[in-house]
Amino acid sequence: MGADVVIATPGRLISHISLGNVDLSKVSFFILDEADRMLDMGFSEDIKTIAAKLPKTCQTIMFSATMPEKIEELAKTLLKNPVEIKLAVSKPAEKIKQEAYVCYETQKMTIIKDIFKAGDLKRVIVFSGSKFKVKQLAASLQQIGVNCGAMHSDLEQAERDDVMFKFKSGQYDVLVATDIVARGIDIDD
Known about the structure:
It contains eight helices and five strands. By secondary structure, the chain is an alpha/beta fold. It has two domains: 10-78, Rossmann fold (3-Layer(aba) Sandwich), CATH 3.40.50; 105-182, P-loop containing nucleotide triphosphate hydrolases (Rossmann fold). Strand 4 (148-151), helix 7 and strand 5 form a beta-alpha-beta unit.
């Protein structure tokens, strides 16, 4: 019994390879989605380890939102006769207001609470760097009466869909999410 498609983090795939659960001898395509994020998380050596075990005929495809030097170096290592496709950089819709505040870590929670206390904010997305901080911030906002939902990697897909539905439909005024989740959010208005 086999699979037509295997989706895994590099570390988990290497674990299954070492346990003998995965045979890579017939792999046709090796696709690296969000390659820049994987390198940021330290998966460079794992990716190279997996690539070394693939058949020579395997085609490698990389998707990356950015092309820093690390990605270009990885591409040179993994790709044969690569073709680079660049998409136009999209900008946020004109209705979207973006703000950034420079502050110390110890000031963040107070500033965020003050922002929400000061105005009637609707349809706000707050991005945070970790699921722990997402949970902490969502709980703090709920304590001051902000109607918000949290989206992070601990949620099952059905729970993520529910949070997103509630935000899109206006049941939540605020969505607090990890930056990884940020790439997949698509809201029409």
